[in-house]
Write a structure and sequence with these properties.
The structure holds 2 protein chains of 2 kinds.
Chain A: H1 4-9, H2 14-24, H3 28-48, H4 54-70, H5 80-111, H6 119-145, H7 148-160, H8 166-176, H9 180-202, H10 204-207
Chain B: H1 8-15, H2 21-33, H3 35-54, H4 59-69, H5 73-119, H6 123-131, H7 133-191, H8 193-202, E1 217-222, E2 234-239, E3 244-250, E4 259-265, E5 271-278, E6 280-282, E7 287-294, E8 301-310, E9 316-329
Classes of the chains: A mainly alpha, B alpha+beta.
Amino acid sequence: MELPSQRKDWVLTREALDQLLEQLDSDRDRAAEKYEQIRRRLMKLFRWRGCLAFEEYTDRTIDRVARRIAEGAEIQTASPYTVFYGVAMNLLKEHWRKSERESEMLDHLIQSQPSAEDPEDLMAQEEEKKEQEARIACLRHCLGRLPSESLALIKKYYAEGDVLDKEQRKQMAAELRISVNALRVRAYRIRGEVEQCVDDCLNPVRSA
Amino acid sequence: MGGKAYNDDLLVRYLLGQLSEEEQSQVEERFINDGEYYERLLIIEDELRCAYAKGALPPAERELFKNRFLIFPDERKKVELAGAMISELSTIALEEAAEPLRAHGEKRNWRERLQAIFDFRSAGMRLAMAAAALVILAAFAWMAIETSRLRNRVAELEASQKAREQEIAQQSDEGRSRLEQLGRELEEERNRRALLEQELAQMREPPSAGGDAGLSIVSLILAPGRIRGGGETKRLTIRQDLSQVRLLLNIGERSAYRSYQALILNSEGAQVWSREALRANKGQGAQFVALRIPARLLAEDDYEINLKGLTQTGELERVGDYYFTVLRTR
């Protein structure tokens, strides 16, 4: 059995990372891009599987693959992504096997905890309220900056219609003379721009 | 999206956790390898998020979404933002719908002004105008009816807007109640702060490996094992009658983080326990993050604790790793 201390002895070194990138693609830039893609998709995979420590598990998946490569293994499949998926699933299975029963017990424990007013909680709530107000102000600012066609599209798509209604999507796509797929992608990307704009507005230092 | 055909219903069911293990694996293997398929999943995820925020998901799917997505704090914020965006867009749509009605009202005033001009004409003109009196009266009557109709329409629109705002407020309440539930998870730790400080003062030496007989809680102070050059692995003996284990993680003299997140893993790397939004407490010459864990979760095994700190900018940084071994006695 691998003890935590033994496992922790191995850390992702620069050399191991280079070897991993080399296996992903011989072109350094493309390899870095693939690495980022894998990381993003693994994080989503763990989230969609309900793993709260999704970042931790993503790092551990990448570390495990990198360790295997550092120990001499080679990625044999046509798609390196599949190797990461296999390791991620093993980690998930280990996680479920041990923690399913315990998490149920913990849920029960959390639900049975008594409630009490705490000044720090109240302060946190107050902070959350202020943050919410700031978010709304930023949102108005960001919607105001959208080109009129983009604003009209998301207004119709999200506010006036039912986003899950296939018939409405078809009708709207026909009015705009684009395919339903193009409509959905366009609406999604405009929403992404708005979210990014709100994030930048709330964190001007980080976005600078 | 290249015109590829996707089974959206399957993807919705994947995201809501309604697929068999085999079907889930098929979806995952595909999105891991196929960027367009992955983007389609992101689009459907966002459509579900917006539908949830708008209250447009059927009850069963709403419940599934809540249990599957709203367990992540950043997801709750995304849903809130989606709800706020839809609310803003609805307001803009209502304002645009009301605009022609307002313009109509302005036209009526212009007609009134014209009539006023005619009233100041000569007596002859007034006589001539008298012939049209019936027509004017009819026009007034029509305008009164039209005004009333327009007012009703505006009132309807306002009522519809209010209903939408109430709906959004209700959704915000649900988000808040989830936050409150999470807040309650922290209460136990916080309520014990005073007690912890007293105990820290008494703990000049780490507690003995044996659990204190007669107590329902056993405590252990841990120093980080990696960043401080490898602290020893401490042993914690848990008696069968102990209900709680309290671990005090030494984080040094100063706490530079807003809060902390702790994750306990067993020797196989499986997560045993985790907790977010933990606070640092002052002890003798150092600060500690206190963890209170149900003793029954800790079987005889080697454990590690990954402690991360939440920075002022919202990033999670590794603070240190702590190791301990659990022994069980009767």
